[in-house]
From TrEMBL:
SUPFAM superfamilies from the UniProt entry: (Trans)glycosidases
InterPro entries: GH, GH25_Enzymes
Protein name per the record: Lysozyme
Taxonomic lineage: Eukaryota, Metazoa, Ecdysozoa, Nematoda, Chromadorea
Gene3D superfamilies to which the protein is assigned, alphabetical: Glycosidases
UniProt superkingdom: Eukaryota
GO biological process, one term: signal transduction
Organism, as annotated: Panagrolaimus davidi
Residue intervals passing through the bilayer: none
Amino acid sequence: MIRIHVYAVTPESPPQIAQNSSHIGWDGIQQVSVDGYKCLAKNGFSFYIGRIYRSIGIPDIHGIQNIKNARAAGWTKVSGYIFPCLRNGCPRPRDQIDAAIKRVQFEGAQIDMLWISVRQNEWPADIAYNRLFILELIKRAETMGV
């Protein structure tokens, strides 16, 4: 169960979240060094979600390197996300998962969980097609043990 406590916000009193029920983390595509992750950890950040596949249909080598850098800095909660390619000519959903996971493994990175970025305004209007596309991504990831 997640409990979030919200308080009135004023310039003198910023919002507070109970420390025992929350974690601060981020996802990002900027390159961050090992020292950068150490600095983030010193400032309360404890998890990172790195992009491992880009919407242009290729693995994200910078995001994968960030995952390795976060691990090297001692982070234990590190996940990856894919931004599926939806344009004509993009690989099939299963092939996108294959490319992402195989590149993560090839680079020696380790992710705890795989997230799939689904942004409403970037998907076709065909809901049935979208559902099948997402289910194929999920099924392939499960088959690969992610």
